[in-house]
Amino acid sequence: MSNKVAKELADFLLQIEQRSQLHAGYPYNLSCDYSAIGKFFNFLLNNAGDPYIEPDFGLHSRKFEQEVLSFFAQLYKIPENQFWGYVTAGGTEGNFYGMFLAREIYPNGILYSSQDSHYSIPKAAKLLRIQHNVVNSQINGEMNYEHFEQLIKENRNYPALINLNIGTTVKGAIDNLDKVLEILERNQIKDYYIHCDAALSGLILPFLDGAPQVNFQKPIDSIAISAKFIGSPLPCGVVLTKKKWVEKVETAIEYIGSSDTTILGSRNGHTPLILWYAMKTRGYDGLAKEAKTCIDNAQYLFQQLKIREYPCMLNKFSNTVVFQKPSQKLIKKWQLAIYENWVHIIVMQNIDRHKIDTFVNELLLEEGLVDQIENFQRQSALH
Question: What is the pTM for the complete model shown?
């Protein structure tokens, strides 16, 4: 390797290390160490085709992918003989897969999703040519159920394809599955497909006492979960659905010795290994502890802003703290996500209370609230 190449890599590494220290506005767990499995990146791993069919080539990680899927199946309470899933390239692919199955099952169905749904939902509707009715959102980002029912009534003769947000992108709001089911029953809608976009909260809610129960014991049909909370150097996620739905779209592909049941042809074989390693080393109890810590720290940040009467919002069971947009300098430094006049911090494992204290201190200074800084510093010293 030339000196020039070495220097460019060294400079980039330093840049990424520095940016990782002040990364607060986007939902990525940056506290992970995967050096133990780094040696596998010297090899090609391609999980092309169905994760449950052994192909004719041997450079894949299906064994690990199947164990990862079993973990998620247990978490979302669907029996082994009834579920199917695969490790995706991320939440968008998982959402696209849910929309694809919904359309294949109900070709004349109408999609309903709220204004606060992830941008991958209207994108999927456009690509798959599904009629899409956008449901108004409440101020906290949750679906407006009265508007949803109004739209359902207007289209009661068509199957309903429904995307529910289990933690919206900007505000962390959770759509109420039970209310949606009540509306469908009240309006005698028999043909429906419910996809749950649980990108970030999908690995938080199952570990929280009193959190809404969203799983396959209720009539949902698919769920997409991102690996953001687990943490991965490569974007990835998981999609789960009912095996009976996948059998409707399965196509055998002779030259790979497998079936075409996924969105992508070739699939990353390293990401299942990463997820497997995370689950084996941290386990259910470890992930549960991380989820509770993130929620507690989000509450802490929210309270620090609230007691200083800084405009802010936090949904229940969410680690996304929304607050009034500060200076551009602060937004750039802490890499905050902007939405209209608001920004948010998503409190992940790498956002501890020391970082929260540092941020709030800088926010007060930027906003000219100098008289509050000494009080804040005294309170911080107690934690």
Answer: 0.93
